[in-house]
From TrEMBL:
Membrane topology: Multi-pass membrane protein
InterPro entries: Na/ntran_symport, SNS_sf, YocR/YhdH-like
Organism ancestry: Bacteria, Bacillati, Bacillota, Dethiobacteria, Dethiobacterales
NCBIfam families recorded: Na_transp (NF037979)
Primary localization class, coarse: membrane
PROSITE patterns tied to this protein: NA_NEUROTRAN_SYMP_3 (PS50267)
Transmembrane keyword on record: yes
Record protein name field: Sodium:neurotransmitter symporter
Amino acid sequence: MSGKREQWNSRIGFILATVGSAVGLGNVWRFPTVVVQSGGGAFVALFLLIVVVVGVPLIIAELTLGRAGKQNIVSTFSRLAPNTRWWLVGLFSLVTVFIIISFYSVIAGWAVIYFVGSVMGIFTGLDAAGLTQLNQQLISNPVIPVLGQAVFIFFTVLIVLLGVTGGIERISKIIMPGIVVILLILLGRTLSLEGAVEGVIWFFRPELGLINVNTALDAVGQVFFSFSLGMGAILTYGSYLTDEENIPQSAFLIGVADVGIAILMGLIVIPALFAFNIEPGVGPAIVFVTLPAIFNTLPWPIFWSSLFFLMLSFAAITSAVSLLEVAAAYIVDQRGWTRKAAAITMGVLIFVFGLPAVLSQGVLSNVVFLGRDILDFMDFVSSSFFLPISGLLIVIFLGWVWSTDIALLEIEKGSPGFYWGRAWSFLIRFVMPIAIFYIFITGIRG
Ligand code: PHE
């Protein structure tokens, strides 16, 4: 990326690309799964709180750092704080990016397989029990999920190779509205199922007794993951911004879009679990069982199912591209490789590193860390630990090293008289470091 730095073509293009990064498996697969595992409404309430106090302010923070630095994740720090070691934070984010994209491609590979399976009609006519069994067979197979993972990585690399702006902006414009339409149809279907109301209540009723530090850790992890925070994706996208961009307003819109889709998804999956009597214990595969079960109650199940999993695969690609872009931009900038060499090499590495995760649902299912299989462990460690740690470091950097006063000047270029400036700066300097640190430390001990 030598020469003149690219900028977004239009405001809507930037917002859609960033929403494309944020909206992905985190909303469709991870959110309902974590809600189920962490006790329903209590988790949802905490999640919303953390969105407001940590999530949106951090989107503002990363976009601002990105626009001020106009560099990749590592050299942003060396440019804003020359002659310090803060660039190590960028390096840490890069490691996190690598772990996340590796396991992300595994789950996204399942979406690809489900797309192909839907077209072939292998899910039609099965009930929830049959679908659970078929899901087990599919994801524990030593070959099929590896193929899905490979296909997914192939397309992600291809898009990064071709450059992000043209292709990704265009795809996002079709995919995002498409997803919303499909989700609304599914929502109508779920809510009309018998027994669905209980699920809706479970989703919204905050059983406060269920809130503990682990729920909080999970909620922080989910916000970071879903908002693409803590690993330089938003920061990198911010580095392509123009000075006129109203950062706080965009951050708000991006947050609302991402949370909206997560909630929509929760309201589709969870009531359906109740209605179909599916054990919430099914774990990571929950979505891959519940949704086909809903499709099977609709006319043209093959059509809906294929369309949905195709959309999901694309939504995952727009997220994975933003991850790969973080690494590619760094390798191209700092190491002087061509974009092509960087993207392909990363693709191969991600594939190899993801293999233990993909096999952890079958042949390697005996390998367990802290009670989690490899896939689950990679997700847990990166989302609940690495992301918050790098988020914490970014906040400390912004609040105390680079200083929020300079940041506010940067923000005000495109948003004169940023009304919430003082509150934002207070959150960044005091509330967030203490909150993230506290949750984090008690979480480790707990
Ligand atoms: N936010 C994406 C999702 O919800 C995942 C992601 C995380 C993408 C971090 C980029 C960076 O699926």
